[in-house]
Design brief:
Elements (H helix, E strand, L loop, with lengths): L1 H31 L2 E4 L10 E9 L8 E18 L8 E6 L6 E8 L10 E9 L7 E9 L10 E5 L5 E3 L14 H10 L47 H21 L11
Parallel strand pairs: 3-9
Antiparallel strand pairs: 1-2, 2-6, 3-4, 3-5, 3-7, 7-8
C-alpha cells in the first residue's frame, strides 16, 4: 500500500513540475516574439505615399544585424468618394466594409545594428506605403512576421490611411434624350456668336428694274366691246386676201393715172 501511494505521489509531483515548466515558458516565448509600436496609426497621404514610423523590440538579442520581415496588409474598409443624385457635384465619403480581401505583402529587411555592427534589441524603422503598390485610402489590418523563425512581431495593428480616392459616379443615368436648357449666361454668349440677320431686299418698282424673279402670269386678252350689228362673228380674211387687195389697189392707182394723162376725157364710142 505504501509503495502505491509513493508511486502516485511521485507521478503527481512530476506532472505538477511539468505544468509549471510549461507555464514558465509561455511568457518567454511571447516575449521573444517582440513588440511593435507605431507613432501615428492614421497617417495622411503625401504625394501618393503614407509613412509608418515604427519602434521594434526584437525581444532578445537578434541573431543577425538585419532581420527579414513580412508586412501583411489586409484591407477591411474602403473610403469611397461618390457622386450621387443628392450630391451631384460634391463627392460624398462612403465607408464600405470589405471581407475576404487578398492581403498585400511587402517584404523588408529591418536593421538592428549601428554602423559599427553592434547589435541592439530595439530599433526605429520607417515603412513606406505607396499607391502604385495597390494601396488606397481606407482601413487595414497589419500583421508583421519574422521570416527567419515565423514568429509574429507583437499584435495585429489597425492602420487608417487617410486620403482622397478616385471619385466614383453613382448618379442615375438619364436616357430620355431631353436637351438641357442652357443657362442665361450661356444663352447670351450663344446669341452674341450668332451672325447678324440678312437685310431684306428693297421692294421691286416694276418690270425692267432688274427683277430676276418669276415673270407675272399674263391673263387672256380682253375681248373688245361689240359695236352693234347682228351679233354675228365675221370670219377673219384668209392669209392671201392681203395680197389681192394690194393688187387691186395698184390697178386702181394705175387707172387713175391714165385718166389724168387723157385729160379726163372719156373714150369715144363708136355707133354702128
Amino acid at each position: 500500500m505504501r509503495s502505491r501511494v509513493l508511486v502516485f505521489a511521485r507521478f503527481l509531483a512530476a506532472a505538477l513540475a511539468l505544468a509549471l515548466a510549461f507555464a514558465a515558458l509561455q511568457p518567454r516565448v511571447a516575449h521573444a516574439a517582440g513588440t511593435v509600436t507605431v507613432t501615428d496609426l492614421q497617417p495622411k497621404e503625401e504625394d501618393g505615399k503614407w509613412k509608418l514610423k515604427m519602434t521594434m523590440n526584437y525581444g532578445s538579442a537578434p541573431p543577425t544585424a538585419h532581420i527579414p520581415m513580412n508586412f501583411e496588409f489586409t484591407q477591411t474598409v474602403l473610403y469611397e468618394r461618390t457622386l450621387t443624385d443628392q450630391s451631384p457635384k460634391t463627392p460624398v465619403l462612403n465607408k464600405r466594409p470589405l471581407q475576404n480581401q487578398t492581403p498585400i505583402n511587402q517584404s523588408m529587411d529591418v536593421g538592428f545594428s549601428d554602423a559599427s555592427g553592434k547589435l541592439f534589441n530595439i530599433t526605429k524603422f520607417d515603412f513606406m506605403i505607396k499607391r502604385d503598390h495597390g494601396f488606397e485610402a481606407g482601413e487595414y489590418t497589419l500583421v508583421i512576421t519574422r521570416s527567419n523563425d515565423g514568429a509574429k512581431m507583437g499584435q495585429p495593428l489597425r492602420i487608417v490611411l487617410q486620403g482622397d480616392n478616385v471619385v466614383v459616379d453613382r448618379r442615375a443615368m438619364v436616357f430620355s434624350g431631353e436637351k438641357k436648357e442652357p443657362k442665361k449666361a450661356d444663352a447670351a454668349d450663344a446669341k452674341k456668336d450668332e451672325p447678324p440677320p440678312a437685310a431684306d431686299p428693297p421692294p421691286s418698282e416694276g418690270p425692267g428694274d432688274g427683277d430676276t424673279g418669276s415673270a407675272p402670269v399674263e391673263g387672256p386678252p380682253a375681248t373688245p366691246p361689240k359695236q352693234g350689228g347682228c351679233g354675228c362673228k365675221v370670219a377673219d380674211p384668209p392669209a392671201g386676201s392681203a395680197a389681192a387687195l394690194a393688187l387691186l389697189a395698184g390697178l386702181a392707182a394705175l387707172g387713175a393715172r391714165r385718166r389724168r394723162q387723157s385729160g379726163g376725157r372719156s373714150p369715144e364710142v363708136r355707133r354702128t
